[in-house]
Automatic annotation (TrEMBL):
<dbReference type="InterPro" id="IPR029510">
    <property type="entry name" value="Ald_DH_CS_GLU"/>
</dbReference>
<feature type="domain" description="Aldehyde dehydrogenase">
    <location>
        <begin position="11"/>
        <end position="471"/>
    </location>
</feature>
<dbReference type="InterPro" id="IPR016161">
    <property type="entry name" value="Ald_DH/histidinol_DH"/>
</dbReference>
<comment type="similarity">
    <text>Belongs to the aldehyde dehydrogenase family.</text>
</comment>
<dbReference type="Pfam" id="PF00171">
    <property type="entry name" value="Aldedh"/>
</dbReference>
<protein>
    <submittedName>
        <fullName>Aldehyde dehydrogenase family protein</fullName>
    </submittedName>
</protein>
<dbReference type="GO" id="GO:0016620">
    <property type="term" value="F:oxidoreductase activity, acting on the aldehyde or oxo group of donors, NAD or NADP as acceptor"/>
</dbReference>
<keyword id="KW-0560">Oxidoreductase</keyword>
<dbReference type="InterPro" id="IPR015590">
    <property type="entry name" value="Aldehyde_DH_dom"/>
</dbReference>
<dbReference type="InterPro" id="IPR016162">
    <property type="entry name" value="Ald_DH_N"/>
</dbReference>
<dbReference type="InterPro" id="IPR016163">
    <property type="entry name" value="Ald_DH_C"/>
</dbReference>
<feature type="active site">
    <location>
        <position position="248"/>
    </location>
</feature>
Amino acid sequence: MTTSHYIAGRWVDGQGSECISVNDPALGQPFAELMAASAEQVDQAVAAARAALPAWKCTSAGERAAYLRGFAEQLGQRREALVTLQMRNNGKPRHEAEVDLDDAIATFGYYAELAEQLPGQNRDVPLAAPGFTARTRLEPVGVVGLIVPWNFPLVTSAWKLAPALAAGCTVVLKPSEVTPLCELAYGQIADTLGLPAGVLNIVNGKAETGAALSNHNGLDKLSFTGSNNVGSQVMRSAAAQCRPVTLELGGKSAILVFDDCDVDAAVQWIVAGICWNAGQMCSATSRLLVQDGIADALLPRLQAALENLRVGSPLSEEADMGPLTSQAQWLRVAGYFATAREEGLQCLVGGKVLDRGGWFVSPTLYADVPEGSRLWNEEIFGPVLCARRFASEQQAIAEANDSRFGLVATVCTTDLARAERVADALEVGHVWINSVQAVFVETSWGGTKGSGIGRELGPWGLSGYQSVKHVTRCLG
């Protein structure tokens, strides 16, 4: 994985001007370097995808399904290397890195099954008018650019790559410069499987490379997962080209705990929702809404649970939570700790960086956070939980929906009728009831409001890479 880019079926060195330093966040030190792609290499990757498209989109559904199953099998064969790389480059504890790999494997397997069903999706369309027949034809949207983030490498790329290939698209994948190595495994697998040259291209780089890809006029679609700031730039470039875009952006999600909930179970769900991947999730349930009747019992137990979490290096010790993935994110979270002190927030636990040589922070809980606080309203992307109390179901729903984001939410209550009622009222794309954030490939992923445009996973993920064509014939 020392060669940076996979273009037109060949491994090539980067010709850009920027060097990408790949770091171990538990040590705060680099362990690899890659040269970024040049704008010319991005051109070459798009051209290779364009050249490969006519033949690839004409392959049978069975052929594409076989390749996708090959990706799943090859990921499994590389299991230990990829899990270790996730631990070393992301700082994920082993159990999290293993879940990530299993997710990627399941995604390729699922879209292999959907690919095999594609011929049945071309169907006749009944017409009210006599003398005509019509049919629907689903076609690949074309050449797509995929830009993925650093918090879930392998996973986010699988969510995009598998349905794009299943639909018959060719792709140019741009991983995050923070975690560029894991996605290179997809190029290795393409070589092993004999995937036709140009169907999959991988270019690494920083913002300059991402801009070259998102602005490229050779793309038919772009799918981006990342921050709202960059997402708005991607959307502007899509508008200039008048082409479709899928955006999976940020969140500031709520977990609602009603007073009939089992306290110990609620603590488990809350901790998982804010500390998985060290809180570096767009879906992190970083706003805790707890009903008055249970708050005094729940908050002390939650404080103790966060204090008892084992924070450490995934490679050297048993860790429940690893470091933040980058120094930039570490400094960002530290900045929010400073803001909390300036705002006079009540810190029950944490609120500090940890002096361990790497980019570690403490799991943090602030109580009675006012609704005007920056920490209540802004996405922090770290293990920082803000709590507020509520009196009624209506108040909880209103406060949960009072956000510019609308990605996910969790509802904790033994009253299942209320749980379903609240879930229906929440303005988000995905709701969990009495559960950790279990994400299944058969379900959809995406949000409302500022959390993005479009959906990934499930059949909705496949349809995002398909174009609908109607063929109408006069019988006269």
